[in-house]
Amino acid sequence: MKRNFNRRQFVGTLGMGTMGIMALNSCSSSSPDTILHNANIFTSNPGQAKAQAIALSNGKIVAVGSNDDILNLAGSATQKINIAGKTITPGFIDAHSHPASSGLRHLRSVDCDLRSIKAIQEAIKAKADNASPGDWVLGFKYDDTKTIEGRYITRYDLDEVTPDRPVRITHRGGHTAYVNSKALELSNITKDTPDPAGGQIVRDENGEPTGLLKENATDLLSNPPNTNTDKDWQDGVKLITEMMSKSGVTSVTDAYGNATSLKGYRDAMAADELSARIYCMIGYHGIDEMIAQGVKTGDGNDWVRVGGMKLTCDGSISERTARLSEAYIGRPDDFGIVVMDEEDLYSYAIKAQKANWQIGIHANGDVGITKSLNVFDRIQKESPRTDPRFRLEHCTVINDDILRRMKAMNVIANPFSTYVYWHGEKMVNYGEKRLESMFAVRSFIDNGITVTQTSDYPPGPYEPMMALQSSVTRTDMSGKVWGANQKVTVEEALKVGTINGAYASYEEDIKGSLEAGKYADLVVLDEDPTQVDPNTIVDIKIERTMVNGRWVYES
Ligand SMILES: [Zn+2]
């Protein structure tokens, strides 16, 4: 979708959002408006790791310290909130996720995160029965390894309940689609259709498409007309940031935004409907238009900011299409898929680099990561940029050479934080040995590489407590441990989920830790994650979430 994007208009609109805050600042009195005291505070500030109380004014932190010191600052109008010994951490930063598009899907599509093909059939049928004839029925968050049937859903399963209108279900990983016969027919996909480059039409023993389309084969589908309005995007943003804030997320990076989703974030901000701050990366398809308008990384304000440019090199971990140097377990000829090769990546990356954009490349397998590092290396030599903070999105399967090169170029790792726990049953495709080099948070920390917490939602659940547990225990839902060598401490995982995420968006001076001068973005937990059984961190309740000094969620 094309949108006329005017830089002056954009920056102007964002400016409006901050005026209220600035006005308040100029007339603030000397005593804080709020004090949170009697708390067990993790600050993510190495200079003052723990504290008991925190003073806030006009959305920002003015002081952090002991109960006595902070309560001493109170004036007659100061609201004092006794946290009753509960734990406070900085708000969590989900450094790679897809909030606007998933919010929209929560409004419009069938949530197929269900445990049987039968349940999915029923949900699709219910949606189809209420749709107009000819309408596409869309589903999302389907997970082929989480249904009791132990196989993936086929065109025939979908035909059974919806023969007359096209159905398209996307995997929660987002790289594969499952469609019915009507959708194949409308898209002219038959047994004679060749596989496209970087994609696969999965076929049965007779060569008939089964309804499963992988990677670039999903582009063969004739899609439903885009009827989403600006208001739909705004509503989706409102919904998803509310959902995420309930789990303690206060900032989210949209890893594949465009002018339309960026407008959705701005509209939600203008309507005071944003419950989390947004760093909106822009997919490479939209980069020429953005560059032509003079837009670049960092534009905007502290609520909605333009992020880096996003490219994609290889496939997905949850859908087992990542490009690996060693084949998938049990599939000796399958090394995964390269979606965009180096020359292609380079052609976009160099443009963005010259126009002063941060660049993030989706790379999961060690082959994909190495190719992406080659691109970073080449563009930084050809057209050096100060502090480029290149990002490897996912950066899942690593090796020593990758670590060495990432450290040398100060490349940020954005690995999946909830996968070991949530997607454990898929890990047999990678094998125990390889898991020692996957989601390698311990290796990143030990090698001095900035590593963030990410969900990639919808592919992974976004709950930060699940991310903590997964990183600390490396244990899946069935109790199996994967890559114990990559375990980190709770304190380390907290920093990964807070201050490191701020660094990845050049915002470490304004958020990510609880210290004077930064925004009052924080979470109150009902238990201290360092004190509970690590296998129960996921059960810790979020009591309240504050963004910009305002409670956006209270249980
Ligand atoms: Zn993603």
Description of the molecule:
The protein is of the alpha/beta class and 555 residues long. The protein has a domain at 97-220: Diaminopimelate Epimerase, Chain A, domain 1. The chain is 31% helix and 21% strand. It is built from 18 helices and 23 strands. The strands form 4 sheets. It has a 7-stranded parallel sheet with strand order 8-15-16-17-18-19-20. A 6-stranded mixed sheet has the order 3-2-7-21-22-23, with no helix packed on it. A 6-stranded mixed sheet has the order 9-10-11-12-14-13, sandwiched between helices. A hairpin with a 7-residue loop joins strand 2 (40-42) and strand 3 (50-51). Helix 7 (230-245) packs across helix 8 and helix 11 (366-382) packs parallel to helix 12. The radius of gyration is 23 Å and the shape is globular. The protein starts with 6 loop residues before the first helix and ends with a strand. Zinc ion (ZN) binds at residues 96, 98, 255, 456. Zinc ion (ZN) binds next to loops.
